[in-house]
Amino acid sequence: MEIVIAVAERIVEYTVEPVGRWLCYSCHYKSNMENLKNQVKTLRNAKDRVQHAIEAASNNGDEIEDDVKTWLTEVDGIMHQLATKKFGGDEEEEESRNSNASCLNLKQRHQISREAKKMAGNISELLENGNFDRVSYRPASQEMVTPRNMDYMTFDSRISITNKIMEALRDANIHKIGVWGSPGVGKSTLMKEIFGKAKEEGLFNEVALANVTDSADPIRRIQGEIAEMLGLELGPDRTEIGRAARLRARLEKDKEKKTLVILDDIWKHLDLEEIGITPSKRCKVLLTSRDRQVLSSEMGTEENNFKLDILEEEAAWNLFEKMAGDSLKDDLVVQSVAIKVAKACGGLPIALVTVSRALKNQKNLGDWEDALVELTRPPPEHDTRIWSPVYSCIQLSYKHLVGRELKSLFLLCAQQGYYISYRDLLKYGFGLCLFHGIHTLKEARNRLDKLVRNLQDACLLLQSPHSSEEYYMHDIVRHVATIIASNDHNMFVMRSDGGQKAWPDVDALKRCEALSVLGGQYPEKMEFPKLRYFHVQEKYLPTSIFFQGIDTLEVLSLTNMVVTSPPFPFPNLRALCLDGCKLGNIGRIGKVSTLVILSLAYSNILGLSKEIGSLTHLRLLDLTNCVKLHLIPSNVLSRLVNLEELYMRNICFLWEVEEPNNEGKLASLAELKHLSHLVTLEIDIRNGMKLPKDLFSQDLERYKICIEDIWTSAFEGEAFSRTLHFKLNMSFQLDFGIKMLLKKTEYLYLDESNRTTSILYELDREDFQQLKHLHIQNNNIKHIPNLRTPAVTFPILETFVLKGMTSLKEICQGNLPLTSFKNLKVLKVESCQKLRFIFSSSIARGLSLLEELNITRCNIVGVIFMKEEENGIEEAVGDMMLFHRLQTLVLEGLPKLVSFLSTRETNSEGSHDLQLPLLHHHQLSFPSLKELHLRDLPRIKHVWSKEVFRFSCSTSFSC
């Protein structure tokens, strides 16, 4: 019985239940189909909503989330299934199926109902998954930076600075980097190049670039630009502090991620923390500015600043030619003018690109010639297609100069010729009271030094290659400065070599406050009732035209002119400069009691009148190169009690000998001791004059003093502010005043051919601490005194010249610290007939900065550098003797020379293998050598061995 029951249960399990489920699908056919229909409708509506959100996001530039894309794909897939199985098809077909449901056999009803329920379940799951909080995200704008005019980035100068910046970015210890350069030089374009290279090389996971510029709300805008490039939503309602916190959290979130933030075009201090940036190994900051001072002092990038220079002439032409199109290649006449146009752009990329685009594919010669005129003589309206963008760029830099003084100095520079003298700026600036709160020339110098540095840091004033006290302006910067000066400040510059030639109208001249005439013709009659500064550079001055009714004049500068009778006095004149003029009677100058500056340099004056002594307010007197001057009455100089600067170089004036009861008619040197405010002195003292005791005050800060010698036109000491040039006789006494000057001297030239005992024996080691250039000649010493002590003697010496030292046996006696000549760049030894070698090898290893080595006419020099020995044992082979910066090596007239580096025995007669090359030693290396001059070396058979000598492949030599 139990078996029967078990069998019956199994039959029910395998037959009744499946039949029941089968009948259930058939019975619920209508409800399942209705449910599916509703689900399909809901799904369609959900899809439409998502699609609308996607369209809106795409229109805003957002990226669609991947899970949203997947969901849409799945929706499309199930819709396709419904259509294929005719589920959820068109309504007419669906209604037909429902109305004929009774006609379906049980098997069809079961199958359709079952699939409908399954489909409804799948749709229900899709609907649940389709409840998105958002369908899109704001992409990080990493691909938004597209470099412009990248062709010029291939030039050597651009490649070099790009590589240097990239190297700094790779350095884990550098967190902030600065790049500075002239307006329009291409800093922003360079930043786009760095952006691309940083991404390309994978140095950073993310790179963000924000243009700072000069905006009203820079912090909020910078935050927004950085956040956009990082794909971060800051929210419009957040405060700056809240936005900074959110940005900082984003930058510091991932410990493994590295970010580079580029802030382009900074004008003033920017608080990075206030923005939300903390520079670190994982978040580096690259900054650009037109002003080096902003980067160095205010942003703290002093140690890691890079300057972007203008393009060199060849590179500038290549860029210009490429941008101007193929028309230049077809017409050589047009091309010749185009070359001049490109040169007039002065290597400034913004000018090169602007002008070349304006003239692109232009074949008309007249248009090119007109562009050349426009560049060299800019229109006062500055709103032409060529000038407008260039003017705006530089005018913006002028606008951001801080303070009236700095802007006034910039405009004063524009009033000068091509080269701008520091001394002229001092004279004119002090005469115009340009420096606020300044009463002395010493104070004015300090202020002027700072202002000049500020203009240089802003790339609006450049250092002259000729002198440390001379500057110049980029041609385009000077043109813009001239336009600003004339349009906004009633300052005019008339030039014969380009620039403004046509004189302003009468009304403009009546408003004129500053006028420079650097050539051209004069109108018949002019009035200047407000003129304060007047500079003329011509051969003849029609004084009847210029000097009628000018009571406001403060600075008058006439250069290289004939001035027979200066039209004085002017009631407010403070500075009078008659440099290079042919002058008549200058006695009337003494009546201009307001004068604080008087410059007669290079003029033809024969003497100073007694009236000059009445100028008790005078602060500066310049008589440089007044070669005809032979009369200075006594008590003229001594009465100039406020004099701070006196220039009397290259004057053959015979000073009166000061003796008891001698009331001479001429000035004596002792009068200089009455000038208690004197801080600058340039003077020649000749004809065996005996110097008054303590003539030179220890208060002198700048001096060029020449005794018994002549300044040459190629005078090396010109670049130094503290120079002593002595050709001494037996009467010379080293008094306290001179010894104090020696302690501060930068350049010392010492010729003692007329003395038996050198003053060097009277000097201490401390007397050389500031020395940068030392020239000793015609001296009978056997070694340089005070080079026997173990202390550092010449810590900053750069140039060392020994000439005609007939008794000199050793330059250094004993062991000196390696750092004694650590800054030496030039070493010249000539005609030292008892000298056997130059330096020991230990000293030579410290000459890492040496650039020029010149040894000539030394009869017994056997080696240049002597390897040292201790207790008869030659020093062990040490490190490579690397003359890394040596560019010029001259060895001439050395009959005993056998080796560049060797032992003491090498120098003995016959002990050296003459088959060995001069530069054979394996410890020598000259990687930067460019010039090698060898002459009159009879014992040298070979110069070098290829196996061991290391030199630059560009080396040239002569024998």
Automatic annotation (TrEMBL):
GO molecular function, one term: ADP binding
Residue runs in coiled coils: 33-60
SMART domains, sorted: AAA
InterPro entries with a match to the protein in the record: AAA+_ATPase, At4g27190-like_LRR, Leu-rich_rpt, NB-ARC, Plant_NBS-LRR
Record domain AAA+ ATPase: where: 173-379
Transmembrane segments: none
UniProt KW keywords: Coiled coil, Plant defense
Protein name: AAA+ ATPase domain-containing protein
Species the sequence originates in: Carya illinoinensis
